[in-house]
User: What shape does this take?
Amino acid sequence: MINFILIFLCISIGILIARKNIIPKDSYKGINAWLLYIALPALALRYVPEIQWNLATIIPAISPILVGLGAFLFVSIYAKKAKLTPQTKTALMVTSGLGNSAFLGFPLISAFYGEENIKYAIVFDQMTFLIFSTVVVTLVLKTASTEKITVTAIFKKVFLFPSFLVTLIALIVSPFWDFAFINPFLDKILVTLSPLALFSIGLQLKFGEWRSEAKNLLFGLTYKLLFAPFIIFLLLLIFQGTGNFAKVIVFESAMPAHITASLLASQYDLNPRLCNLLVGFGIVASFFTSAFWYWICSMFIN
Assistant: This one.
């Protein structure tokens, strides 16, 4: 219960402070810097060495890819019928194709399944980052047509990203060196992850005028919160996924729109209003849909 109170309280405080203009509008960037450069790398170093690598880990690795491919397919069909502009099509594609697997996903997993099960979500989250850094960045820049895209720049962005770099180091070194001696230190850092991530989300939430984007908003939310996790749920049933491992993967695929992808699309003027609405309404709706998927997984996954 305390985790749910924490989620509600931290987001609400963020929304209130943003509405009252108590701090500068871009203050969330400083918070995100701590999360991206300190807390998330610490999380990777804490839990990656504990992951039991086997064929089952293929599922969390391919799940974000399947969610992204589904978004590409369904948004392309919808965009053609709805006669969307290329900007709106790309905005809808990147925001419904990637989920908020870390900032919101980790706190919700902790609340529903316990903090010890976050380790099952790390592979999913790292693959989400890879998709964002390569496919999403390329798609946004191509649609905006303001910058040239180079393979070197994309690879540099991926391999120099702190949490990915730490994950890579942990994967290579952990079989030969036990990181357990620094776990107490890492645990102290990780205490900051959920509150600050949720507070940052609250600072960034925008709802604004939604009626003009109602159809696109409904489509994006329906795919990301209901249809995408259903795809992964079926995949796990087919391959007989069991336990909290399988439940966490479904949970991660049910997270709302990726905040960073939304910010990137907005930065390049790809329907910023729709991007903000998908993040804002998606987070609110996800509290209900997460409970729904928790119940579904409890019923059908042993």
